[in-house]
Amino acid sequence: MALRLAWENGHLEAERTWRCLRRLPVNHTPRRDFLDRTQCRRLLDACSPALRRLVMAALYTGCRVGELGQLRVEDVAYQIYGLRIPAFKRSPARFVFLPDEGMAFFQRCCLGKAPRDHVLLSEAGKVWRRQHAGPFRLAAARAGLPSTFVFHGLRHTYASDLICHGVPLEVVARQLGHADTRTVASTYGHLAERYREEMIRSRFSALVSDPAGPALIH
């Protein structure tokens, strides 16, 4: 990125210098920084009204702060039962489907607003950008969450909850705005494997009346 900016600003004679660079591979480690529903409720109780709405929006969608900050009334329930998320950074525009309670929440946030109004605003009536960080850190501390937990952890919470309830990785990836399942599989795949183990152990129909008895085949 630095070399590209240097070329764009006239500090390099040719773009070949940065065009020849290759992107380094990124290894996504399994995520552990996500909340259960009890922790989510404690966090919501510790938030101011505006921050609470922002946190709830993240928990219902898995969206980033920047994506939620751009969200306008006209993006809610646009052609689908969910949200139209505008393009953000390198992520293209996408649709995010909502559960019933999530749709009801966003519709309440839109009451009395014009189509081009922002859905979520700070306590000062400003578009959310980075001013959430300090208040969120304080709310997380009041809720007794780990000091390392940041707002982006709500995105991991959203994805982890879906995967633990059996939602396919492809669906989760589409909701988060990933082009394929690779990032989701490497980040949350351990949760999917745990769910698969639980499903097989709990739903396999028995072949013998006494599973602890002699083996079926000798």
TrEMBL record:
Q: Which family, according to UniProt?
A: Belongs to the 'phage' integrase family.
Tell me one GO biological process term: DNA integration
- Annotated CDD domains: INT_ICEBs1_C_like
Tree of life domain = Bacteria
Alphabetical UniProt keywords: DNA integration, DNA recombination, DNA-binding
Q: What is this protein called?
A: Integrase
Q: Which InterPro entries match?
A: DNA_brk_join_enz (IPR011010), Integrase-like_cat_sf (IPR013762), Integrase_catalytic (IPR002104), Tyrosine_recombinase_XerCD (IPR050090)
Residue span, Tyr recombinase domain: 30-201
Q: Which GO terms describe its molecular function?
A: DNA binding
